[in-house]
Amino acid sequence: MSTLEWQEARHALSAGAMDRAHKEFVDLTNQLAEADAASEEKRLALLLAHCEDHFAQEQEWMQRSRMPAADNHLRDHDGVVALLHSTLAELRAGRRGAGREVAESLAAWFDHHSATMDAALALHMQQSAPKTQDGIPAVG
Ligand SMILES: [Fe+2]
Ligand SMILES: [Fe+2]
């Protein structure tokens, strides 16, 4: 059973590259939730690497589209990255199951974050011109 189910009507934000990143987040979170002891650390590290890229990309979009009040959004991302780093340290210290537990809490986090902060960013990008085909503001 998946921890986090992609729901097109709820999670798709009509911003191609952002939706692709979010689907990957959903997949990696589910893979971590279903990890066994042998794969838990590797799957957590993959999710952490994904989050660092995903959040850096959103930060670039915020800057490029001159998104106002981006600080709260960036702090929310930073909290997740810090949580994943500390969970990885716990796992490496031998606390098995820490990765699977964090996957459960990230599922609830994503459902809220995508519907609020990411939705606001996607809307802002759609309203700022010019854009690429992906709905992402062009550089410049
Ligand atoms: Fe996102
Ligand atoms: Fe975000």
Q: What's the quick description here?
A:
This protein has five helices and no strands. The chain has 140 residues and is mainly α.
What CATH architecture would you give? Up-down Bundle
Q: Which structural class should the secondary elements be placed in?
A: mainly alpha
CATH homologous superfamily annotation = Hemerythrin-like
Low-confidence stretches: none
| Gross morphology | elongated
Distance between the termini: 44 Å
From the alpha carbons, calculate the radius of gyration and give it in angstroms: 16 Å
Q: What's the main sheet like?
A: none
Instruction: Examine the coordinates and then state which fold CATH places here, giving the name of the CATH topology.
Output: Four Helix Bundle (Hemerythrin (Met), subunit A)
Strand content: under 5%
CATH class division: Mainly Alpha
Q: How many structurally independent domains?
A: 1
Topology:
Layout: H1 8-11, H2 16-33, H3 40-64, H4 71-92, H5 98-127
Helix pairs in contact: 2-3, 2-5, 3-4, 3-5, 4-5
The site of one fe (ii) ion (FE2) has 6 residues, from helix 4 and helix 5.
